[in-house]
Amino acid sequence: MIIGLDVGNGSIGMGIHDNGSVLYNLMPSVYGRFDSTHEVLSVSGKSKQLPDVFTLGSESFVLGYENIRTVHSTPIGAYDRENRFESTQFETLSKLSLLDAATRNGKTGVLEVDLVFGTPAEDYTARTKEIVHQWFSTPVTGAKNGQQVVIMVKRIEITPQPFAVFIDAYVTEDGFVDKEEMETEDILVIDSGSGTLDLSEIHRLELSKQSSIPAGLNDVYQHILELIQQREPKVYATTYDLEHQLRAQDGSSQFQFEYGRVKMDITKFRDQSMRQVWDRIQQGIQQRYPDRSIFKRVLLAGGSGDAFRNYFLKWMPTIEIMPEPQLSVARGLMKYGILKFGDTHDN
């Protein structure tokens, strides 16, 4: 089994290649503790189905915002940019994500996997690689819904997320070259995530230069919340609450926000916040690459890339937006694993 794992600030992307079958999944980058002794009373026939519960160490957890709400837990996320890979929370989130990915095909017990783990460009350092290697140097032992799971990471590769976007465009799910012309091209990859926008240059298949801009959808959500709280100081919503409501209204021209008995139209707040963060994104790219015509192609991926799609297209009409941009990194990591490790030992 080959797993590509993209644990970002806003979402977790995973690509799983197992015995010729391919599975992708995307979920909010958040987990919560699960208390099995806490009884939730509900109206007969109206209770929600219990989500997958993962055990790691002596604690139990659920993944994803909807599941956290179902079990009435507190969201624990990965918004930190400072020393993120040093935090216990991010390590826990990464291991829970691997438990989820390795068992999505219904398997439990002892599982051997090859793992390709993505990092933002700014975190692709010798120290970060050492930390991630330490996380998975011993078996990840836990359970899913009471069934024991032991994940043996046989081989691991740590890869910058923007390079995975390039691989996603270059290679098919079977590991065959899809666009041979990219082998001789100079390419700029823009991976616009929830917390960080990464810029990477690919010259003739080699990653030659990387930089990061601290801007993304998390900044949009934070600014909207500040505007909401200026109007209604007693609104104590989190960015998870706001994101959940906004995503449910994708495609709408008007956006509503509800908190208890408070209901307000936040369309202007959203538009203002999007423009403000877009200015930071655009200025950051312009400062680093005032002439983008030197590149044969510019690739765009990431959750913020999807959200700011129309802004990018208006500014750079020739930009190539990856299919399902939020999953591009995970797909590319999985494909890189197929190239690196082959497909002869799937379990």
From TrEMBL:
It comes from the Bacteria. Gene3D superfamilies: 3.30.420.40. Residues 4-163 form the Actin-like protein N-terminal domain. InterPro entries: ALP_N (IPR040607), ATPase_NBD (IPR043129). This is Plasmid segregation protein ParM. It comes from Alicyclobacillus tolerans.
